[in-house]
Design goal:
The protein is an alpha/beta fold. It is built from ten helices and 20 strands. The strands form seven sheets. A four-stranded mixed β-sheet has the order 3-2-1-20. The chain has a three-stranded mixed β-sheet with strand order 4-5-6, covered by helices on one side. Helix 8 links the parallel strand 13 and strand 14. The protein is globular.
């Protein structure tokens, strides 16, 4: 599985339509999507999942209004339940002995073992594979299909993978693969993603309804460096879990034994909707070919986070995307996007 910063053929995104994800916000959300597509299309194709012709026309109108060259977007009429393409979308891989061949690993998706409507999302990878004529292989362990969301893992493209125990190993809350052990997951990652080293962190951030996705917490920015969220307010519920993850990372190594560089990423002030904390995090950024999109939250730390990413990615434009509305749906930019690596 290539790293996100490696060259893309395209970025996939699902045009929003499920109003329950963003109560009373859908009109605003479409304009945010338009801005995401506008920025990404400057450096790569954007492939957009739509439910039908009417949904496609709605997306096209929005994109035309924000000034996008529509020839840089491809529309695929593949019905979905939601727009969180990172989690249900195709995970593209390169054949180990041939960098020119791309294929898709088909993990099962069950809406984070939380929501009942996921059947359309679950079929999206196989439908995409068929349209692109790319080989698809189901991921099976212990004679059963493996459930895994793209947001639960992050890779450095060299054989090391980041994930959390809270998401994959909890035996009581949102259990994806009942009975699976640490060793079971590591075998799946080795056989299907080319991973030789798995770095297990503890808990994710407060408010994350996926129960511990890594892409709100800690991300690779090069083969040997990660950004890790840090909470400085000792009374905040994130303070201790994030400090414990820092301690873990201090003792972990990459696939070749090299120590991991850690860059601390601030947290925005807590955001709430109907009394429920939202998973606002700068770690939910996305690396495009020419741009790094970073969620912002009308917070003083927005500027700090953008400055950190500008130093880490001097060869790309770093752009803040207003995400106060997006995060009402319990996710932001990385959750919405999925990279398709270049085939050569």
């Amino acid at each position: 599985m290539p790293a996100e910063w490696e060259q893309h053929e395209a970025t996939w995104i699902g045009w929003p339509h499920n109003t329950t994800d963003w109560p009373a916000k859908m009109t605003t959300i479409q304009w945010v999507y338009g801005e995401i597509v506008r920025k990404l299309s400057e450096g790569e194709r954007v492939r957009i999942l739509v439910n039908n012709k009417a949904h496609e026309l709605k997306a096209r109108r929005t994109l035309e209004h924000v000034g996008i060259d529509i020839s840089k977007a491809d529309f695929f009429r593949i019905p979905t339940n939601r727009g969180w393409t990172r989690d249900f979308g195709p995970i593209f891989l390169k054949q180990e002995d041939s960098q020119s061949l791309v294929k898709i690993a088909k993990f099962q998706f069950n809406a984070w073992a939380r929501y009942p409507n996921w059947q359309k999302d679950n079929r999206a990878p196989e439908r995409i594979a068929a349209k692109l004529k790319i080989p698809l292989f189901p991921v099976i362990q212990q004679n059963r299909d493996v459930v895994l969301e793209g947001g639960s893992i992050d890779v450095n493209g060299q054989g090391t993978l980041l994930t959390t125990e809270e998401c994959l190993l909890d035996e009581h809350i949102q259990v994806r693969n009942p009975g699976f052990t640490r060793q079971d997951y590591e075998e799946v990652f080795r056989e299907c993603l080319g991973v030789t080293q798995v770095l297990w962190l503890g808990k994710g951030i407060a408010g994350d309804d996926t129960h511990g996705h890594i892409d709100d917490l800690c991300r690779f920015v090069d083969p040997y460096t990660v950004v890790l969220c840090q909470e400085t307010n000792s009374s905040d519920e994130n303070y201790r879990p994030l400090a414990e993850n820092r301690e873990r990372l201090d003792g972990l190594r990459c696939e070749d034994g090299r120590k991991i560089g850690i860059v601390s990423l601030p947290m925005p002030a807590p955001l709430y909707f109907d009394g429920q904390r939202l998973p606002a995090s700068y770690a939910n950024f996305y690396i495009g070919n020419s741009v790094v999109l970073v969620p912002t939250f009308n917070d003083p730390n927005d500027r700090v986070a953008l400055g950190i990413f500008s130093e880490l990615f001097p060869d790309r434009a770093v752009v803040g995307i207003h995400a106060v509305d997006l995060v009402w749906g319990f996710g932001t930019i990385h959750c919405l996007t999925q990279q398709q690596p270049a085939s050569n």
